[in-house]
Amino acid sequence: MAFNHVTVLLKETVDSLNVKKGGVYADMTLGGGGHTALILERGGRVFGFDRDIAAIENAKKRFSGMDFVAVHSNFSRIKEETQRLGIEKFDGIIADLGVSSPQLDDAQRGFSYMQEKMEVDPNYFFKETAFLHTFLSFLNQDGNNDEEQLEEL
Predict the structure, then answer these.
(1) Is 30 helix (H, G, I), strand (E, B) or coil?
(2) Is the dihedral of CA 91, 99, 131, 73 positive or negative?
(3) Dist CA 60 CA 55 (whole Å)
(4) For residues 60 and 112, what is the distance between their CA atoms, to the nearest angstrom?
(5) Model-level pTM greater than 0.85?
(6) For residue 68, with 0-12 CB atoms within 10 Å meaning exposed, 13-18 middle and 19 or more buried, which class applies?
(7) pLDDT at position 153, please?
(8) pLDDT(62) > 60
(9) φ and ψ at 15, to 5 degrees?
(10) Which helix (H) or strand (E) holds 131?
(11) Burial class (CB in 10 A: 0-12, 13-18, 19+), 74
């Protein structure tokens, strides 16, 4: 599956990293690899994190033979993954939080408005109702959401 995703503010984001040749960078939300491609082009080494296996497989092919390491993991596990990979420090880290176009476009593998599922990685499946409950908990800081209110949604 090809990732057809246009990275927003690509140049501005990578410029802010001040990429140096041989520098070590983390793309915490690899996705289609737009940021990673430009960092590699500028001479950086990139560790690309994503929990979406399709993004990881796409990046492995796209960046084969380059100074790139794909990390199939959620960015919340950066500490454990950097220890496992023997990385002492990064010269820069980026995280483009959100979803990418392929996750929205293909109901079989991403967030779907057409089906009752929301998944990036099939190992982390959850129903929309669980998502809505969590979301409403954030809105209602005391966490006491009315169950009838949830059922109406």
Answers:
(1) coil
(2) negative
(3) 9
(4) 25
(5) no
(6) buried
(7) 45
(8) yes
(9) -55, -40
(10) helix 128-139
(11) middle
Model confidence pLDDT, tens digit, residues 82-119:
999 999 999 999 998 876 666 666 666 556 555 555 55
At 93 the three-state DSSP class reads: strand
**What burial letters (b/e) apply to 13-49, b meaning 16+ CB within 10 Å?**
bbeebebeeebbbbbbbbbbbbbbbbbbebebbbbbb
Q: Hey, what are 14's tokens?
A: 């990578």
Instruction: For residue 86, give both structure tokens.
Output: 């023997």
CA distances (Å), origin 124, targets 45, 111, 120: 29, 12, 7
Model pLDDT, residue 35: 96
Residue recorded with tokens 């990275």: 7
| CB neighbours of residue 10 within 10 Å | 14
Q: What are the residues whose beta carbons fall under 8 Å from the beta carbon of 134, sequence distance 6 or more?
A: none
